[in-house]
Design brief:
Strand content: 15-25%
CATH architecture: Alpha-Beta Barrel
Low-confidence stretches: 1-12
Strand order of the largest sheet: 9-10-11-8-7-6-5-4-3-12-13-14
Keywords: 4Fe-4S, GTP-binding, Iron, Iron-sulfur, Lyase, Metal-binding, Molybdenum cofactor biosynthesis, Nucleotide-binding, S-adenosyl-L-methionine
Number of strands: 14
Largest sheet: 12 strands, mixed
Helix content: 25-40%
Organism: Leifsonia sp. NPDC080035
Radius of gyration: 19 Å
Catalytic activity: GTP + AH2 + S-adenosyl-L-methionine = (8S)-3',8-cyclo-7,8-dihydroguanosine 5'-triphosphate + 5'-deoxyadenosine + L-methionine + A + H(+)
Pathway: Cofactor biosynthesis; molybdopterin biosynthesis
Number of domains: 1
CATH topology: TIM Barrel
Shape: globular
Number of helices: 10
EC number: 4.1.99.22
CATH class: Alpha Beta
Structural class: alpha/beta
CATH superfamily: Aldolase class I
Distance between the termini: 25 Å
Length: 354
């Protein structure tokens, strides 16, 4: 296979995956016995915000339109993933998926390709109020909205855009369309951690399930420093100044990334995804497809396997499934942030897809 244009500094497609020792397993098993069942599909590198932990101020280099997977190609991969590889849920990400004018077509064709599968998006919510009905009609079942603060000044500084009212409109529209439970994702940053209790109170008042996320070294500017990161322990201390939190772990799914706490005795909860300090790599069940059609087995592994070339080169579904299985067989054991000499991936989060 040839080198893949990543829309960022180039990483090499490694050719036919090494499957030596792989058991005769139909799913996406790796060398450590993990099986991927959660598919994340990035549909674009474009975004309406410029969050400092995700994108550079000028945005990511544009991916040529012809290099993006088409709706039909995405749907075909969804069908192969669900029918042949054991995928149980699919989430469309970006960049910002709402930047794709054909997002409803992507969702609709995917729903037809894999009837009954859970189809969701991760979005910043901007413009969702104008499009939510068409997305639900196409087959969208859930939505996660990224919202790091409800302080307008801090929001503008963090995202480099003064668009908080538009996000609020998106949250309201998702509720009105019945996309519940509505989850909010918040990356905790040093400049916003003091407002974390306010954000949690807003989420509860507005019927949302909030999950805080430790900032990972996936920023385009490579400015992340562990000593500057707000970790789960510090966040719990800050939230504890206003709320009584009772740990309940992962009651619904032991492989879920978020640990949960009851808020003031419940029934409301808050989750924390402590990717850095409480790694859950050993239970990871995700596989990712980039907007250009490469399999990325791990957020922190730059090895990618090109499926777009197979899709456009006449490969049948069985051949595509074989390459996908091989790509996941080589998944690394974990992100490796605890090791000396750790180096972040070449791609930023915006270029990989959440």
């Amino acid at each position: 296979m040839t080198a893949v244009d990543l829309g960022m500094p180039r990483a090499r497609s490694t050719g036919a995956p090494d499957t030596a020792g792989r058991p005769d397993h139909p799913g996406l098993i790796d060398r450590f016995g993990r099986v991927a069942r959660d598919l994340r599909v990035s549909v674009t590198e474009k975004c309406s915000l410029r969050c400092t932990y995700c994108m550079p101020a000028e945005g990511l280099p544009a991916i040529a339109r012809d290099d993006l997977l088409t709706p039909a190609e995405i749907a075909r991969l969804v069908r192969i993933g669900v029918r042949d590889l054991g995928i149980r849920e699919v989430r469309f990400t970006g960049g910002e998926p709402l930047m794709r004018a054909d997002l409803a077509e992507i969702i609709g064709l995917s729903a037809e390709a894999a009837p009954g599968i859970d189809l969701s998006i991760t979005t910043n919510g901007i413009g969702l109020d104008h499009r939510v009905r068409s997305l639900v009609d196409a087959g969208l079942t859930r939505v996660n909205i990224s919202l790091d603060t409800v302080d307008r000044e801090h929001f503008a500084a963090l995202t480099r855009r003064d668009r908080l009212p538009a996000v609020f409109a998106g949250v309201a529209a998702a509720h009105a369309a019945g996309l519940t439970p509505l989850k909010l994702n918040a990356v905790m940053m040093r400049q916003t951690v003091g407002h974390a209790p306010e954000l949690l109170a807003w989420a509860i008042a507005n019927g949302c399930r909030l999950r805080f996320i430790e900032q990972m070294p996936l920023d385009a500017d490579h400015a992340w420093l562990r000593e500057n990161m707000v970790d789960a322990a510090e966040l719990l201390e800050v939230l504890g100044t206003r709320f009584a939190l009772t740990p309940v772990g992962r009651p619904d799914d032991p492989s879920a990334p978020a640990e949960e706490w009851l808020v003031d005795g419940g029934p409301d909860t808050v989750g924390i995804i402590a990717s850095v300090t409480r790694s859950f790599c050993s239970a990871c069940d995700r596989t990712r497809i980039t907007a250009e059609g490469t399999v990325r087995s791990c957020l922190f592994g730059d090895d990618e396997t090109d499926l777009r070339g197979l899709l456009r080169g006449g490969a049948d579904d069985g051949e595509i499934a074989r390459w996908w299985r091989g790509a996941m067989w080589g998944k690394q054991s974990g992100h490796g942030m605890e090791r000396a000499g750790f180096r972040p991936p070449v791609r930023s989060m915006g270029a990989i897809g959440g």
